[in-house]
């Protein structure tokens, strides 16, 4: 599990084709790999990936074709948001994030509002029902709060710290982003559906 609080911005520096998918090498100078081991989970642009090797300031992860088919940002060199998995003793500064991307959204607006930015995103239609005003959503691994929701479009106010500490500052209209909806919304839907079908 993750919190959606980005620990560092890393960089994909090497992409090696494998029989199925790719192996990525990610430079992670600011992440701190002293406590990372093979088999640990690191969220990369919101995608939970398993460390298969590491050395000095970089680590390697394998990405399957299935993951590539439902996410963006893992098939080209460039900057990427990073977060190590939570310990049970860690503070939960954002919200509970699984690292399992639900879909890819499209940026419609990225407008300055003073020092902030107004970010407007269109979500896939099947995810729209899970997005609520003043609720939590994960965008490229960042835990964010929605300001407004209308149909499949939602807006977020990005403060200067978030812009400085993440890759979100590079967004523009037409950019595609990884989205993970709030886990609680999915569990509530499941419970309600089971209750209405007398599964319990």
Give me a quick take on this structure.
Helices cover about 10% and strands about 40% of the residues.
Please write out the topology.
Elements lengths: L7 E10 L4 E6 L13 E4 L2 E9 L2 E6 L1 H5 L8 E7 L18 E11 L2 E7 L13 E4 L2 E9 L2 E6 L1 H6 L10 E6 L1 H14 L4
Antiparallel strand pairs: 1-2, 1-6, 2-5, 3-4, 3-6, 4-5, 7-8, 7-12, 8-11, 9-10, 9-12, 10-11
Structure overview:
With 200 residues, the protein is mostly beta strands. The protein has two domains: 8-84, Elongation Factor Tu (Ef-tu), domain 3 (Beta Barrel), CATH 2.40.30; 103-190, Elongation Factor Tu (Ef-tu), domain 3. The protein has helices spanning 65-69, 160-165, 183-196, and strands spanning 8-17, 22-27, 41-44, 47-55, 58-63, 78-84, 103-113, 116-122, 136-139, 142-150, 153-158, 176-181. The strands form two sheets. The chain has a six-stranded antiparallel beta barrel with strand order 1-2-5-4-3-6. A hairpin with a 2-residue loop joins β7 and β8. The longest helix has 14 residues, at 183-196.
